[in-house]
Design brief:
It is built from 8 helices and 12 strands. By secondary structure, the chain is of the alpha+beta class. A hairpin with a 5-residue loop joins strand 3 and strand 4.
Length: 283
């Protein structure tokens, strides 16, 4: 299955199967292309299917009337747009402003949408992981929002999901934890306040490849894609405290957090498993 719609990818990542897990392989030359306002990243599956994710720099000021909003609040919209474009041919050329005026407007409760975007731009808020989940599910994209978690259990869930070759949309903050105890309340390694990104998978060195709409000096040329240890990312992630609250736009810290497991290759895995059952070997 190819949802490229004629788009030429800038960067190519290949899912390689090793035993029962997958990792992302790539040429080091991709680094030369990662410090751009927008990068098309193709992820190819061993049986020939592919997805192309557009990865955006949120402060690039290329988003028409929504450029200021994107600069201030755009990380979640960038991540949502990347998944929609990769998963739906009709949205393969979506920009974040298209996501706002089409996907958010049409697929979220209209009163929440109007309430958010009728405010002055500095008071408009990003879509939450819960809101992203609602949009993906209405687009028939399989996903599961994990709002509340214990860190050890969450690490195991994330590890299994990434090893299956599927991505995770996640949120972190500038608070760094050791176990469940905050040890720094202003650590800005990954987030100025709150930040939403996508884990695309592991590379062959065991690092997680993440998309990032922000510029981070520590990452050098690795900007639209970065590499990190899952354990380090987990130090900045946090569960949603008020799980009975389901706002589609950010409201308070206690009403946000968690992570979103997205199932990109489920149909492929079902095909592979059927063939394994019939032939006891991969095709």
């Amino acid at each position: 299955m190819n949802y490229s719609n004629g788009i030429k990818a800038d960067v190519h990542l290949t899912l390689v199967q090793h035993n029962t897990s997958y990792y992302l392989d790539y040429d080091q030359e991709i680094v030369e292309k990662l410090n751009q306002p927008m990068v098309y990243v193709k992820v190819s599956h061993p049986i020939g299917w592919e997805r192309i994710y557009p990865i955006f720099q949120q402060n690039a000021m290329i988003y028409d009337d929504y450029s200021t909003y994107m600069k201030m609040h755009g990380c979640a919209c960038c991540s949502l747009t990347s998944i929609l474009a990769a998963m739906r041919r009709s949205k393969s050329r979506f920009m974040p402003q298209d996501t706002i005026v089409e996907a958010e407007k049409n697929l979220l409760p209209r009163w929440e949408y109007d309430k958010n975007y009728d405010r002055p731009v500095e008071k408009q808020m990003p879509v939450t992981l819960y809101g992203i989940c609602q949009i993906l599910q209405k687009e028939a994209i399989s996903c599961k929002y994990v709002a509340s978690f214990q860190r050890k259990e969450a690490m195991e869930i994330l590890d299994r999901h990434l090893r299956s070759g599927n991505p995770v949309i996640f949120e972190l903050s500038r608070i760094r934890y050791k176990g469940n105890i905050p040890v720094s309340i202003n650590d800005r390694k990954y987030a100025g306040s709150y930040h939403t990104m996508i884990m695309l998978g592991y590379d062959k060195e065991g690092k997680v490849i993440i998309t990032d709409s922000a510029q981070r000096e520590w990452a050098g040329s690795w900007q639209r894609l970065k590499r990190a240890d899952l354990s380090d990312l987990m130090n900045y992630m946090f569960p949603q405290k008020n799980t009975e609250s389901t706002p589609c736009y950010f409201h308070k810290r206690k009403n946000t957090g968690g992570f979103l497991l997205v199932h990109v290759w489920d149909r492929i895995e079902n095909i592979i498993q059927k063939k394994i059952g019939n032939s006891s070997a991969l095709p």
